[in-house]
Every structure is written in structure tokens, then in C-alpha cells.
């Protein structure tokens, strides 16, 4: 290995998840919140023109995503998740 580190696939995946959660914590500290977790307008606009700028059940999907990530309802990583990733 070029780095001298002996990483298997799972170690790489956990490291990536740790980085992703650290980035989320940093962004949260800078004021990023649930209101910023939206889809781009091109996804919400129909190609034939006009759009509702609203996706049915988006809040439910966002809740499920947060749960999958191990974040609370505000999109902040939980203490349990941070312990799991050995961040705290």
C-alpha cells in the first residue's frame, strides 16, 4: 500500500462516513439546517413548464434519510452516531 495503511473495504467505508458526518457537523455550526436540505429547482420543475416547486412526501423522505444516517430530526448527527464513528 502506498500510504502504509492496511485498510479493508469496511474501514474505507467507515472513514468516508466519518468524514461525511464531520462535514455535516461543521456545516451545522455555520448555520446549515434542515431548511437547506432541498432538491434543486430542475428536479422540481416539470419539463413541459410550470411546476409546483414541491415534492410530495419530501419531508417524510427527509425524515427517513436522517434516520438512515443516524441524525436527529434537525439533520444533526446524534451522539450515538458520533460514538459509533469514534468521533467522540
TrEMBL record:
The identity of this protein, by name, is Aldehyde ferredoxin oxidoreductase C-terminal domain-containing protein
GO MF, any single term: electron transfer activity
PANTHER family assigned: ALDEHYDE FERREDOXIN OXIDOREDUCTASE (PTHR30038), TUNGSTEN-CONTAINING ALDEHYDE FERREDOXIN OXIDOREDUCTASE (PTHR30038:SF0)
Pfam families per the UniProt record, alphabetical: AFOR_C
Sequence ranges assigned to domain Aldehyde ferredoxin oxidoreductase C-terminal in this UniProt record: 2-87
Amino acid at each position: 500500500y502506498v500510504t502504509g495503511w492496511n485498510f479493508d473495504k469496511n474501514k474505507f467505508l467507515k472513514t468516508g462516513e466519518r468524514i461525511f458526518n464531520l462535514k455535516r457537523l461543521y456545516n451545522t455550526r455555520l448555520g446549515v439546517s434542515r431548511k437547506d436540505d432541498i432538491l434543486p429547482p430542475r428536479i422540481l420543475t416539470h419539463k413541459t413548464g410550470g411546476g409546483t416547486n414541491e415534492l410530495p412526501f419530501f419531508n417524510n423522505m427527509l425524515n427517513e434519510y436522517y434516520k438512515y444516517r443516524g441524525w436527529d430530526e434537525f439533520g444533526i448527527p446524534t451522539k450515538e452516531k458520533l460514538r459509533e464513528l469514534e468521533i467522540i
